[in-house]
Amino acid sequence: MSPALSLSLSLSPVCNAQEVSKDTHLLKNTSRETPCHKSQPNLKSSRRSLLNAASLGFIVPGTLMSNSARAEPEPESPNASTSSRLSYSRFLQYLDEGAVRKVDLFENGTVAIAEIFNPTLEKLQRVRVQLPGLPQELLRKLKEKNIDFAAHPKEVDWWPAVLDLLGNFAFPLLLLGSLLLRSSSSNMPGGPNLPFGLGRSKAKFQMEPNTGVTFDDVAGVDEAKQDFQEIVEFLRTPEKFAAVGARIPKGVLLVGPPGTGKTLLAKAIAGEAGVPFFSLSGSEFIEMFVGVGASRVRDLFNKAKDNSPCLVFIDEIDAVGRQRGTGIGGGNDEREQTLNQLLTEMDGFSGNSGVIVIAATNRPEILDSALLRPGRFDRQVSVGLPDIRGREEILKVHSNNKKLDKSVSIDIIAMRTPGFSGADLANLMNEAAILAGRRGKDKITAKEIDDSIDRIVAGMEGTKMTDGKSKTLVAYHEVGHAICATLTPGHDPVQKVSLIPRGQARGLTWFLPGEDPALISKQQLFARIVGGLGGRAAEEIIFGEPEITTGAAGDLQQVTQIAKQMVTMYGMSEIGPWALTDPAAQSNDLVLRMLARNTMSEKLAEDIDLSVRRIIESAYEVAKNHIRNNRAAMDQLVDVLLEKEILTGDEFRAILSEFTDTSLVEVNRNSIREMIEA
To answer: Could you tell me which residues are beta bridge partners of residue 86?
Structure first.
């Protein structure tokens, strides 16, 4: 048989299929049949028609059996091509008619491949049905019709899941492997359990210290310098001390307010001793990982022992040396472990021969008692605020590289800066140099020094006030301070009166201390209260009680604090020489203030309040008497102050002497003494 004849015979059922296409519902697409009148189609079109017919299921069984067999899907694969698709409603209809022979369920019961008998073609056809889930009605009908059905589980491809899992764990596994590799290959003293050198000490090491600071650069702390000079001499010539049985101190603790030169002293001793020097901060021991701090302490002392004799400087040791068990909500185990290791290394079973530990703190009251005992810190050196001679020496050190005018007196600057630390004095000279450069001067004059002191103490200079009632009231307020302070025995002399606003103050009255207030008498404290209340007294006497302002708020806080200290701390009242407050309650540490107990009775608290009130009321009466008796002098001083805005102490005393006799000062002194004794 020729190819053309073969194709013609195989396509002959198509015409018959067209005639019954209206009766069969298993055919999805019948729009591409080959016309019957084409008896001699060419080879290319015949193949296309053959493929179309095969896809529609029109091939007579036995004609092209191999092609039709390949076109039928395997029952295990729901995605394979089927002869057609069938709606769910039509599938139920065939099920009721008994035409369904077998059903295979896939995709968790959402897809069915059914074998349906086509009576027209007298053959079984496989159709794909999309099911709405797996309804119970369908299962019931399949059981009633005794139809063979089976559910096939979904095939799971494990490789994508495995690859995703490996991708998620790739980076952590790589990081863990690198950590283990570094820790196993590291020979650091931190140990193999602390990768990346977490257990190594962060101390800065200098085999030959070159800090650029010597004892000549440290001024105002002569007592501390003497202690350190002994240590330097011990390090340089230890045999001289060993001959008499002396041993080197294991530790020196520097205690003092911030800015007094504790770190500067450590740099000086490092520059003078010429031995290996380790320096770090107490906070550098502590990390978020447990055991890191103790490991760093061990590493630090191991390195120090290898380079002994040497110096180890720990700045702000209170970060790690706080008392154990006093933390709010429980202690910090990591910090306490670090402290325990530090105690052991300083004076433990093995000791730390040849290692001198120098530590600095401004909070010695919170340090652990085991850390402060002899054998660990053998010496505690107090580095306090400098006195007037110390301030002079410090000012000379910080003015060596600055050009000062002949009008600048170091002695006057030292007198005007009581309570200034070394850091404050260094900042003062630097501010004066900046101000002189801003004003285009080639030297620092007394004006720049004076303005710098005002700026540091009171704040930046504000906008000047315009003439008016407010400016006049401020002028009377400040002159009231100056008059009451001058006429009250025991008060410091007036340095200047200013109407230039600084910070929150609209005006300021400055006083020049005659000597350092190391010991203050009862008369001096009472005089300060009188001077502090002079501004409010002037407002009340000059303008009347309804016109008093809020300008005296800061003054009232200061005088109340002084009066309360006179009663509760200094025993300067009729209650007697009692210490009526717990020292822990006066501490700056929150924990100590919370732990302080209040053992004061209600009667004693009431007596304290009455004594404080009596002192302040007596001082206020003295201040008002000064204002009443010197009204003419006050008016004259206010007129000059409003015109010049700044009144020096000499100008103030010259004007006041024109209205006030010196004998009046003696009368005031006697009356005040009687009030204090009463």
So the answer is: 129
CA distance 275 to 151: 87
388-458 is classed in which CATH architecture? Answer: Orthogonal Bundle (1.10)
What are the residue numbers of the active site? Answer: 478
pTM more than 0.90: no
Characterize 106-125 residue by residue with b for buried, 16 or more Cβ atoms within 10 angstroms of its Cβ, and e for exposed: beeeebbbbbbbbeebebeb
The total of other beta-carbon atoms located within 10 Å of residue 674's CB is: 8
Give the helix ranges, DSSP H, for 79-195. 88-97, 136-144, 158-185
Q: What residues contact 507, with CB distance under 8 A and at least 6 apart?
A: 474, 475, 477, 478, 497, 498, 499, 500, 501
Q: Which fold has domain 198-382?
A: Rossmann fold (3.40.50)
- Number of helices and strands in the chain (H, E): 26, 14
pLDDT in tens, 60-104: 333 333 333 333 344 445 544 445 788 888 888 888 888 888 888
Superfamily of domain 469-677: Peptidase M41 (1.20.58.760)
**Residue 432 parent element (H or E):** helix 422-438
How far is Cα 516 from Cα 525, in angstroms, rounded to an integer? 14
What digits encode the pLDDT tens for the residues 146-195? 888 887 776 666 777 777 777 777 778 787 777 666 555 444 444 444 55
| Residue 365: exposure state from Cβ atoms within 10 A (0-12, 13-18, ≥19) | middle
User: Rounded to the nearest 5°, which phi and psi values hold at 113?
Assistant: -110, 110
- Give Cβ neighbours of residue 580 (< 8 Å, ≥ 6 apart): 567, 568, 569, 600, 604, 608
Match 């490789």 to its residue by tokens.
Answer: 159
At 432, which amino acid appears? A
Phi and psi dihedrals of 34, rounded to 5? -85, 130
The alpha carbon of 345 is separated from its chain's Cα centroid by a whole number of angstroms, namely 31
Query: Cα separation of 455 and 450, whole Å?
Result: 9
